[in-house]
Amino acid sequence: MSLLGIDIGTTHCKAGVFREDGKAVRIASRPTRTRQDGLGRYFYDPGELWETAAACIREVLREGTQDVQSIGIASMAESGLLVDSRTGTAKTAFLPWFDSRSMDQAERIGKEADPYERFRITGLRSSYKNGLAKLLWLKEQDPDILNHAVWLSASDYAAFRLTGTMATDYSLAGRTFAFDINKREWDSSWICHFGLNPDLFPAALPAGSRLGCVHSGASAETGLPPGTPVAIAGHDHVCAALAVGAVREGDMYVSAGTAETLVGILPDSELSQREYDSGLSYGLHAVQGQRFWMGGISASGGSVEWLRGLLGDDGLSYQELMGLLESGRKEPTGILYFPYLSGSGAPWPDAGARAAFVGLTKAHGKADLLQAALEGTAYELEAIRRSAEKTGCPPFTRMTTVGGGTRNRRWMQIKADVTGCLMEVPAIEEATLLGASLTAAAGCGIYSDEREAAAAVKPEAFTRYKADPERHKQYLDLYEKGYLALQPALRQFYHTY
């Protein structure tokens, strides 16, 4: 018996076949091609994105992997498109979460109601990333485009191509700024307030719910057996929690990649001023009856990639980058890097924030700049951790970490030294893919629930990074007296010039 996971990500589309114990049988990955129009706005081509996902599925479905019992689809959260409800054809390109064309619409949305009251309903603040802002932007370009249209996320679209059913899950619906996470339904009056029809949004289901089966046309395209159950597993970072076993109240894990995200699990209770003040975002978890909190660093690994491209004539190779880091100092650089190349998230949400280096001297070199970038993202990690603890979460002394960033051992040690937490990296290949497959398997009855699915996964090994007491003391001083202390002045500057 096999489980299939699909992950439609910002930089890659992936498919993976897993055994019931979480062991990977075969994984395929292909780049998600990001395009730009003549005005520099980013988009994904729907046909191209689907074909990339289908190619990954075909690649993993080789001999011995045809006994797929369920399919779970995870994706980046806020990216979406409009599909014609009559014909099923795409009416627009995919608008990626990171494309900022809907900034003005998000600002207008934010002024239409008390931000705190909207937060209590949605778990979010108004942002250009959210589906509602993107829909208003599309409406302003062409009001008729909303006729007979349905807004689908990347997961929703892939599920539709496989089954012919249009639906979404709670965790993805919750990223539109139009979904009531308390009532678990679309906020029709809020949607109508903007002159939109609530029918723009598909049915919303709990994560992992079986929404249909692979139809014959999709079977021919992908090689999947017709009739195989399909489920939308949901938000990629939330799905990955099942793979790493972060499925109980107080659990937390870190997904480290181009962007970095901390995700924790909470009881299913309404949000209060305390949660609002945290700067975190909230939603309904893939674990039924639970909620999640989330804080992100949008340019974490992205900061390293940015510097890698700048510090060599043709860009530094990864080998050269790691060589510089290993040859550099082990103690703190004393440089403060604020990693806001794409704005800042929790606990200081600010789309207008900009990156900065503070404390440079002529004695600093390439290795110092690279290390400072790693330190700056670790300071952000610490800020999010502290913010979560202020909401009533127990003190965090351990961070389970997955993602491409874990391959940088120097970075992992700096995170341990800054936060004082034990950084624990399980030997799990592709946590989001595995989490998507487990979420669907639980929803389709292969496991009794999500916790049983998570318990089936037993990593063979862990790599652990323990904080050095002296370095932690030094970093704590830099964080308190420098990184925190300079935040107000830097933000005032961002919005003055």
SSE layout and pairing:
Layout: E1 2-8, E2 12-18, E3 24-31, E4 35-36, E5 42-43, H1 46-60, E6 68-75, E7 80-84, H2 103-110, H3 115-122, H4 131-141, E8 149-153, H5 154-163, E9 167-169, H6 170-173, E10 179-180, E11 185-186, H7 188-193, E12 203-205, E13 210-213, H8 216-222, E14 229-235, H9 236-244, E15 252-256, E16 260-267, H10 273-278, E17 281-284, E18 290-297, H11 301-310, H12 318-327, E19 336-338, E20 356-358, H13 366-390, E21 398-402, H14 409-419, E22 422-426, H15 431-443, H16 450-455, E23 462-465, H17 469-484, H18 487-494
Parallel strand pairs: 1-6, 6-14, 9-12, 15-21, 21-22
Antiparallel strand pairs: 1-2, 2-3, 4-5, 7-8, 10-11, 13-14, 15-16, 16-18, 17-18, 19-20, 22-23
Helix pairs in contact: 2-4, 9-15, 11-13, 12-13, 13-14, 14-17
Domain Carbohydrate kinase FGGY N-terminal: 3-242
GO molecular function: kinase activity; phosphotransferase activity, alcohol group as acceptor
GO biological process, one term: carbohydrate metabolic process
Q: Gist?
A:
The protein has 497 residues and is an alpha+beta fold. The strands form seven sheets. The protein has a seven-stranded mixed beta sheet. Strands 3-2-1-6-14-13 form a six-stranded mixed beta sheet, with helices on both faces.
Question: What does this 3D model show about the protein?
Answer:
The chain has 497 residues and is of the alpha+beta class. The protein has a domain at 2-238: ATPase, nucleotide binding domain (Nucleotidyltransferase, domain 5), CATH 3.30.420.40. Strand 21, helix 14 (409-419) and strand 22 form a beta-alpha-beta unit. The termini are far apart. The mean pLDDT is 94.
